[in-house]
């Protein structure tokens, strides 16, 4: 029996269907909702057709690019203390911003994201259509411009984010405190009340604020029985032991990699929870460091089914600063005075990305999993056949997990569970 002691889970809870596409859904709200606070909010994408651009079917090129980005982002974020994040939400938000970049700034973003802006727009449009047509995943986007720049926003940018990402684009008074309330209300609604606040204040020099929200509501295909849930020990990375509510039941499949073993347990609708348990003598952080795009897509050698024991848990992150993470991955000019975002507005004033951050939420129990993420980017001026059950996996020590899109095999959320 392999015991999962430290769930420093790389939340590879691979909701592989987690294509966090930037798409607005009927739940995204409308201008009437936004106007409840700010008095000068104007919808800039009125007259632009939402979601009408042509997409491109997901292929090996996209999967390679996205999985490498997801693995790299997770490795770097964990170094800064992150436990659960959504690489997909960040990827979509950055893809939208990339449509405003030019020159070397654009080249750096393309290299880090692995694809051109035109290709990413088309791929993410297909994923957006897929996710927003089912009840498991919802993705929404909005961009808010400082009212002083309302007449300077380029039509090409508005057309792209509306046509490919169904983004709602607003002009608002950033000096009005009610605009912050409107932004937070939009996030709260589009994360199904799971993330209530993300914006604390707006700098007067801020030109735009971009949001990507992602939610996941998954019911296990084979739920855990509540009667089987028992109090059990969980062995933390530092050697201490805490009590957890340990669920028990069958996992869909068992796999083994170089320094971990794991399971994949399916949700209804084509998603799965994937857990990577470090082998004895290996820390969860060593597993995180060894993860790459290939291991996210193909975690190892599969060998039948497994009997699974895993804790119920709920986790809400603090605001995670992502600028150092993205700089480590290769995006650098976008954050300093060399930045070139000439495709965003017609203003002669130079614009750079001033901040990128994310908040996440996850709760998993006998019935399934609920998760949410919001990524914010602020920009400002400066001036098969049945298988035998022959394994048991007990997640009673830190582990990495992910929620994945089973159709294309990539993670929407990734995290570490460490008993807290």
Q: How would you classify the helix and strand content by structural class?
A: alpha+beta
Gross CATH architecture of the largest domain = 2-Layer Sandwich
| Percentage of residues in helical conformation | 25-40%
- CATH class identity of the largest domain: Alpha Beta
Mean pLDDT: 87
Which consecutive residue ranges, at least 5 long each, have pLDDT under 50? Answer: 1-32
Number of helices: 10
Strand composition percent: 25-35%
The tally of domains stands at 2
Total DSSP E strands: 21
In this structure, how is the largest beta sheet organized? 8 strands, mixed
How much is the radius of gyration in Å? 21 Å
Assembly annotation: single chain
The name of the CATH superfamily of the largest domain reads Antithrombin, subunit I, domain 2
Morphology: elongated
Overview of the molecule:
It is a single chain. This protein is α+β, with helices and mostly antiparallel strands. It folds into 2 domains: 2-14 and 219-267 and 275-313 and 385-417, Roll (Alpha-1-antitrypsin, domain 1), CATH 2.30.39; 15-218 and 316-381, 2-Layer Sandwich (Antithrombin, Chain I, domain 2). Helix content is 25%, strand content 34%. The chain has 10 helices and 21 strands. It has helices at 31-34, 60-79, 87-98, 103-113, 117-131, 155-165, 177-190, 284-290, 293-297, 323-329; strands spanning 2-5, 13-15, 42-43, 84-85, 137-146, 168-172, 206-219, 230-235, 241-251, 253-256, 260-267, 271-278, 301-302, 305-311, 313-316, 320-321, 351-364, 368-381, 389-397, 399-405, 410-417. The strands form 3 sheets. Strands 2, 4, 10, 11, 12, 13, 20 and 21 form an 8-stranded mixed beta sheet that branches. Strands 3, 5, 6, 7, 15, 16, 17 and 18 form an 8-stranded mixed beta sheet that branches. A hairpin with a 3-residue loop joins strand 11 and strand 12. The chain starts with a strand and ends with a strand.
